[in-house]
Each structure stands twice: as structure tokens, then as C-alpha cells.
Amino acid sequence: MRWAGHVARMGEERGVYRVFVGKPEGKKPLGRPRRRWVDNIGMDLQEVGCGYMDWIGLAQGRDMWRTLVECGNEPSGSVKCGEFLD
Fold first, then answer.
1. Per residue in 17-67, pLDDT tens?
2. How many CB atoms lie within 10 A of CB 85?
3. For a surface tag, which of 19, 28, 57, 86 has the fewest beta carbons within 10 Å of its beta carbon?
4. Which residues does 39 contact at the CB level (< 8 Å), separation at least 6?
5. Could you write out the DSSP letters of every residue in 33-76?
6. In whole angstroms, what separates CA 8 from the centre of its chain?
């Protein structure tokens, strides 16, 4: 999660950011869309109870992102996601 915040603060022109958000070029393959790293981070945040947030925007503020990451490291159910935003 810390690495995801670091990459989210990078500019869109950086190659790592483009791979992270998964904007491939060329033809789309048939079948189910591939899962991107961004989707995995969203699923991790849903487990903590923060799936409704715009986490890329939240990662722009390092202090708030650090608090969210620390909240995710707590034992399940001990801290609610909205509590750290107050």
C-alpha cells in the first residue's frame, strides 16, 4: 500500500504510473478484462472498509495516506476507515 501511494503521486507521463493504472495500447483481448494493480488496491481497501474512497486522490496527501496505510495494518475490525478522517 505504501508503494501504491508513491506511484499514485507520480505524474501520468511516467511509465510506472501507466503500468499501474493499466492503460494498454493496441487491441483488447477477448474475454474478461484483466485485473489491474489499481483494481487490487481497491479490493484491499474494501476489506478495510474504505472501498468507497478515491484513493488516488487521497494518496496525494502523504499524511492522510500514511494514516490509511497504518489503519489497514491494524487487526481486522479494530479501527474503522472513517475514524481516521475525522
1. 877 777 667 777 788 877 778 888 888 888 777 767 788 888 888 888 888
2. 13
3. 86
4. none
5. PPPPHHHHHHHHHHHHT-TTS-HHHHHTSHHHHHHHHHHHTSPT
6. 8
